[in-house]
Design a protein that fits this description.
By secondary structure, the chain is α+β, with helices and mostly antiparallel strands. It is 39% helix and 14% strand. A hairpin with a 4-residue loop joins strand 1 and strand 2. Helix 3 packs across helix 7. It starts with a helix and ends in a 12-residue tail after the last helix.
């Protein structure tokens, strides 16, 4: 069951590892089969070096394991909250990549300061509100997902496919598991560029909205003309 999805999710997890975004057993990626209503995710605490497609765990959207002999990632409830709230999502990736996590720990959104950022994300990368002690003590991972969903109220999660969880780290998503991993790689790069920009010029202004939209929409949406047809 879910052979193709398992392979894609495995490759997404390995991409996080290859790119240095997930060390040891940190981080996780998942993908969803919308027609079957099933999610495939990295096992909890599993090392990337020896992970195989058959090690991945399949659950339903309520977190009940339907396939696999290992425990799913402890972040599964966060992934499920995003899948339930954002129907266009096909994959989710979570890392503790250094630069993006530094912005999350600082409680600061990543401003859109240049066209490298605008090519991939339409505006700043938002940061969630900190979880309350009650939210941490009860259903912590689920409440992490809810905090992301709440932060995205009023705007399109498919135009900015990433969020910083305050004090924790980044979650990225996309139309597939591979796209979510791709976005995690890009997020770390723009987080690094933004950091150096504000170090060199603390007064650096955000990119003008006209230039931001020009770069974003030439790659995304109906009018996109970047790349080959």
């Amino acid at each position: 069951m879910l052979t193709a999805l398992r392979q894609e999710v495995l490759e997404a997890n390995l991409e996080l590892f290859r790119r240095g975004l997930a060390i040891y057993t940190f981080g996780n990626a998942s993908g969803i089969s919308r027609d079957k209503g099933l999610v495939v995710i990295k096992p909890s605490g599993a090392p990337y070096e020896s992970m195989k497609a058959e090690d991945l765990v399949a659950t339903d959207l309520e977190g009940r394991v339907v396939e696999g002999g290992l425990r799913p990632s402890s972040d599964l409830p966060t992934h499920l909250a995003l899948y339930r709230a954002f129907p266009a999502l096909g994959g989710v990736a979570h890392t503790h990549s250094a630069c993006a996590t530094a912005w999350a720990q600082a409680g600061r959104e990543i401003p859109c300061l240049g066209t490298t950022h605008a090519d991939c994300f339409r505006g700043p990368i938002p940061v969630t509100a900190p979880l309350s002690p009650e939210e941490i003590q009860t259903d912590y991972e689920l409440n992490t997902g809810r905090a992301i969903v709440k932060r995205f109220a009023g705007f399109d999660p498919m135009e900015t496919q990433a969020a910083l969880v305050a004090g924790h780290g980044p979650f990225c998503w996309g139309g597939s598991a591979s796209q979510a991993a791709h976005n995690a790689v890009i997020l770390e790069e723009i987080a690094r560029i933004a950091y150096w920009t504000v170090m060199l010029n603390p007064a650096a202004a955000p990119l003008h909205s006209t230039l931001l939209d020009k770069h974003f929409f030439r790659k995304h949406g109906r009018g996109a003309y970047y790349g080959q047809r």
